Amino acid sequence: MTATPTAIPTTRADWQALAQALTARLETRAFIDDTFVDAVSGETLATINPATGETLAHVASCDAADADLAVAAARAAYARGDWSRLSPARRKQTLLRLAALMEAHQHELALLDTLDMGKPVSSALGDIDGAIGCLRYTAEGIDKVYGEVAPTGDDSLGLVLREPLGVVASIVPWNFPLMMTAWKIAPALAAGNSVILKPSEKSPLSALRLTQLAREAGLPRGVFQVLPGFGHTVGRALALSMEVDCLAFTGSTGVGKQLMQYAGQSNLKRVYLECGGKSPNLVFADCKNLDQVAWNAAAAIFHNQGEVCIAGSRLLVDNAIRGVFVDKVVEAAKAMQPGDPLDPESFMGAMVDETQYRRVLDYIAKGREEGARLRVGGVAIDGPGYFIPPTVFDGVTPAMTIGREEIFGPVLSVFGFDSEEEAVAMANDSDYGLAAGLWSQDIDRIMRVSRKLHSGQVFVNNWAGPDMTVPFGGVKQSGNGRDKSLHALEEYTELKTVWMALAP
Ligand code: NAD
Q1: Residues with a known catalytic role
Q2: Partner residues linked to 31 by β-bridges
Q3: Mutate to test the pocket of ligand 1, among 62, 175, 303, 476 (most ligand atoms within 8 A of CB)
Q4: In a domain, 21, yes or no
Q5: Whose CA is nearest to atom 38 of ligand 1?
Q6: How many domains does the chain divide into?
Q7: Which strands sit side by side in the sheet containing 156-164, from one edge to the other?
Q8: CA–centroid distance, residue 444 to ligand 1 (Å)
Q9: What is the position in ligand 1's atom list of the atom closest to the CA of 262?
């Protein structure tokens, strides 16, 4: 599949035409040891366009047999050393070539994610830009990270070296298919590991296209492989493998817990988890420009149809401004209706599949049953496709299901508070700790509350603003890993001590 559009798509009709061209020649096979292959079992899985309900393709459904082949090829590549022992400067060049190829094919990559999981194509383009930025940032970093010389006496020399781990299995979700992939594979590859990627069964197409670009960029055989398939088959096999050294996972907390068990049952491989969230967004009465804050609070949950790990799904508002503020959030929500993902003007698209659509609707029903006040939305949009409008519940309490559980859809729960202490206690009353936001003009309060929030990241007077220079990850049951920034490289390298005795 080498669709190279002659013109940059800008209108819905352009995107539709490109979609037609692309779906006629999709790569659907696994990529193992530099070869595109069907699953050993011959099984396939259907990937559906959730905006239309139509089947896009039947993709290889890998299982343990395919995992064994990929792991053997990854180990062989690692031992061969044409990537693992290549100088960081040379690895950088290859990864920069890959980033350039991704840029040249950005419309096609964005469209594959849109067709596969229903997000608006304009947001998908932003994701691809983020993925390319991640590749570039990490590649540029790898030849600037030094080891250490220990502070010894003259009779010895202590070196602390950073070495690649060996074989890394990256298991990723469907909500930002290629961006989550880039966050995992860029540092793992830059550090010299062999990487096996398992994309979500709901969104494998962009990862398969990426393999073709990686090959063109010059990644040696066995260094980057992709196994599409289900979690309980090929994902589990990778996690239980004795020859995989690290699992880098983004997905739900439930599966993250299973992966830790698999590591314990096998070879104690490293397990880095980026899991779920129920992120609080605190709005204090002293914040500036309520209209803008309300728009941001709505976008923090409705962007990507609410299918975002760091979605600001709990909005905590000072009761002094709650009435007027929630009215503004409701108005903003009304302006964020879902539309055709191929329309560049659409703010929201379709839910990823029928299962997720039903799950979100069940939560909405539970919100009503448990006594939360529905302010807007709440009723699914008639098909075809799985569309749910922005939904706002006010008067939510910490005891309600929609106030505690991750919904992963366009449902906002609004809570009221009377004091800063109450707001912080409510924000921290969660199993999760992925992100938190706070809106205020009082610098003392900003610093005080930022420190007290039990969260991997705190956004002050913005939501999800950070770029590649800072780490991304959570505490508590949101996980233990950190993507992005140079700190991500630490996860994919082992510290080795070399101690030399020196003659006087
Ligand atoms: P999921 O946990 O169902 O699946 C994630 C991946 O794990 C998929 O590739 C899946 O096939 C695989 N998997 C499932 N069961 C497995 C098993 N037994 N063994 C090995 N692999 C298995 O999550 P999802 O529905 O794809 O994504 C939504 C979740 O991801 C949400 O909870 C969201 O918060 C989380 N997420 C977190 C971050 C973050 O950075 N913290 C980012 C995006 C999404």
Answers
A1: 274
A2: 36, 226
A3: 175
A4: no
A5: 309
A6: 2
A7: 148-149, 156-164, 493-501
A8: 38
A9: 19
